[in-house]
Design a protein that fits this description.
The protein is α+β, with helices and mostly antiparallel strands and 172 residues long. The protein is built from 5 helices and 5 strands, in the order H-H-H-E-E-H-E-E-H-E. Helix content is 38%, strand content 16%. It is elongated and about 70 Å long.
């Protein structure tokens, strides 16, 4: 599956003069030539969606958010994250264990709450509040974005992978 790389695209457009304009011109010409075909395909997709939505219950309908085509933050700046478990390996009954794959690449706009939900799903926890996510030994707030954590808490040179630790929540 190919994904667009917005940063690389921006660099190429700066290096190659008039490339972006020529691409847009070719795209407009293509739409003029194949406009009827494209419109018919869109109508078929819309018809299929309307048929699907008629069969769904009103509560289960999806809400489309202001023209987004389900981009899922692919154009956002990406960040590499390593999730390390800080649990005691000797305790077998521990609810929080090590991940099989501890490295992820995701949008820098992800919040710590998203990371907790990811850990909840991967570790089969009852609630996301069962884990604490830390950076350099400091517990991170759920509304912190990974970009914020990287810029303010991660004191390693630029371009390195952000290392976040997680452990079972400690209640006093």
């Amino acid at each position: 599956m190919l994904r667009s790389d917005k940063t690389l695209e921006d660099v190429i457009h700066k290096l190659v003069p008039k490339l972006q304009e020529s691409e847009q011109k070719r795209e407009r010409e293509f739409c003029k030539r194949n406009g009827d075909t494209i419109v018919k395909a869109k109508e078929m997709v819309d018809m299929k969606r309307s048929q699907d939505s008629e069969t769904e219950e009103p509560d289960a309908k999806r809400i489309k958010i202001s023209g987004t085509d389900e981009n899922f933050h692919r154009d956002d700046p990406q960040i590499g994250v390593c999730l390390e478990c800080l649990g005691d390996d000797s305790v077998e009954e521990q609810s929080v264990r090590k991940l099989v794959r501890k490295y992820i690449r995701c949008s820098s706009r992800l919040t710590i709450a998203h990371v907790k939900k990811f850990l909840k799903m991967k570790l089969d926890l009852k609630t996301a509040d069962q884990v604490e996510v830390m950076c350099n030994g400091e517990i991170m707030g759920k509304d912190h974005t990974l970009e914020f954590v990287y810029m303010t808490r991660w004191r390693v040179k630029e371009g390195s992978v952000l290392i976040l630790q997680y452990r079972p929540r400690l209640d006093f």
